[in-house]
Write a structure and sequence with these properties.
Radius of gyration: 19 Å
Largest sheet: none
Oligomer: single chain
Number of helices: 7
CATH class of the largest domain: Mainly Alpha
Helix content: over 70%
CATH superfamily of the largest domain: RNA Polymerase II, Rpb4 subunit
Length: 135
């Protein structure tokens, strides 16, 4: 990715941002109602709230199993063990958290040429260790 203004974000980063945005958006609506006596919420505010709610619902199942700390630990250990994995591939691994090798093979380009089956199994082990909560 050449554009330096573009940043890859993990699900947990987006999830945390959405939660904060919802909190700020809700606070603005509440303060506007109190200070200005506005009873009705604008159509735009309803749309923003709807988008934030749906993004939060979509990300919550995976993101609730992760934290910024566990994702950081995963990325650090993963990059130490598998330095040849591209950044976009690594973020796909974080966001999809695959636990079967066939999914890893679809995420990592030419995976069967670049990595052995044991290395792919090691990648899955790291996903399970850091990104998947045990019941």
């Amino acid at each position: 990715m050449d554009n330096k203004s573009v940043q890859l974000l993990s699900n947990i980063e987006v999830f945390e941002t959405v939660k904060l945005r919802k909190k700020l958006h809700g606070g603005l609506l509440q303060s506007g109602r109190k200070n200005e006596g506005i009873a009705a919420v604008t159509e735009e505010s309803k749309e923003v709230e709807w988008v934030l709610d749906n993004v939060e619902k979509a990300l919550e199942p995976k993101a609730s199993q992760q934290s910024i700390e566990t994702v950081s630990q995963f990325v650090k250990e993963f990059q130490e063990k598998y330095p040849d994995v591209e950044q976009f591939e690594l973020f796909q691994l974080v966001n999809l958290s695959p636990v079967i090798s066939s999914v890893v093979y679809t995420i990592i380009e030419s995976c069967d040429i670049r990595f052995t089956e044991d290395q792919v199994a090691g990648m899955i082990g790291l996903v399970k260790k850091y990104l998947i909560s045990s019941p």
